[in-house]
Amino acid sequence: MAEPLVEVRGLAKAFGGREVVCDVTIRLVAGDLLGLVGANGGGKTTTLRMLAGLVTPDTGSGTVLGAAIRAGRIDRRRIGYMSQRLALYPELTVIENLHFHGQVHGLPRTAAGDALTRFGLEAVTAQRFGTLSGGWARRVQFAASVLHAPPLLLLDEPTAGLDAVTRAALWGWIMQFAGTGSAVVVSTHDLAEAERLPQIMLYHDGRASARTTPAAMIGAAGATSLEAAVLARAQA
Ligand SMILES: Nc1ncnc2c1ncn2[C@@H]1O[C@H](COP(=O)(O)OP(=O)(O)OP(=O)(O)O)[C@@H](O)[C@H]1O
User: Is residue 99 in some structural domain?
Assistant: First the structure.
């Protein structure tokens, strides 16, 4: 059996005495593409931040890339993390940001140029990151998060607010990246998008359903779409 890249059990996190993630268990091996799906405020971002080593779980156990999740030793350099906030340097141009990112990861200088071509960023090469439109900024963020070919890629609502063409391109790159043998976790509240993912966990108020396929969830609800299945669950 393949060695897990992530194997965590019973993760929980509270802020100000309110539990926002409760008893979440995730196991990922190379090639997995898992969607964390559900309404705003359900705990998806907090889960991703715990996997990224940015938030320490209050309880739970297990490892992320071999490091104990509660010991604060997760090697963040081996993780690609795309947050909902625009996390690159606004005053640097696109190529400068990618060069900087490449340098941090010890990549050859050619890596940034390769990424420009791969993700169709030539038109904005010399533009300051802070002046990009939302769609271009997301593309650049995605390029930065995969530049170092991390074995674990965590994407928080990567397609939120994007037009249909950019969204389709981004999903294409996400699927392609998962196919290279890394594990990818992607959060989304867009159920039509989630329906295309091979595996999902449905979040509601900090609790996540067992991992399943969209088809199984639709079938179990006797519904015709993931959206209808989730609505049926919410009204049950
Ligand atoms: N650092 C924090 N301090 C206090 N509360 C927080 C903190 N981080 C998250 N929360 C709260 O935890 C809850 C879960 O938030 P989280 O961002 O994990 O959900 P989400 O499913 O990703 O939602 P969204 O889709 O809106 O990003 C929310 O009510 C949020 O306000």
Answer: yes
Does 83 contact ligand 1 (Cβ within 6 A)? no
Question: From ligand 1's centre to the CA of 57, what distance in Å?
Answer: 14
CATH number at residue 218: 3.40.50.300
Measured from the CB, is residue 20 less than 6 Å from ligand 1?
Answer: yes
- β-sheet bridge partners, residue 63: 7, 68
What is residue 162's DSSP assignment? Answer: -
Is 128 a pocket residue for ligand 1 (Cβ < 6 Å)? Answer: no
Tell me the helix, strand and coil percentages in the chain, rounded to 5: 35, 25, 35
Instruction: Find the domain containing 134 and state its range.
Output: 6-235
**Within 10 A of 39 (CB to CB), how many other CB atoms are there?**
13
Q: How far apart, in whole angstroms, are the C-alpha atoms of residue 81 and residue 98?
A: 14
Number of other residues whose CB lies within 10 A of the CB of residue 137: 19
- The closest of 141, 156, 111 to 133, measured between CA atoms, is 141
- d(CA 62, CA 221) in angstroms, rounded, equals 32
Q: What is the mean pLDDT of each run of 10 residues along the chain (236 residues)?
A: 87 93 94 92 93 94 93 88 88 96 91 93 95 92 94 94 89 91 94 94 88 94 91 80
Query: Whose CA is closest to 52, among 171, 164, 183, 209?
Result: 183
DSSP string, 84-101: SS--S-TTSBHHHHHHHH
The secondary structure element, H or E, covering residue 168 is helix 164-178
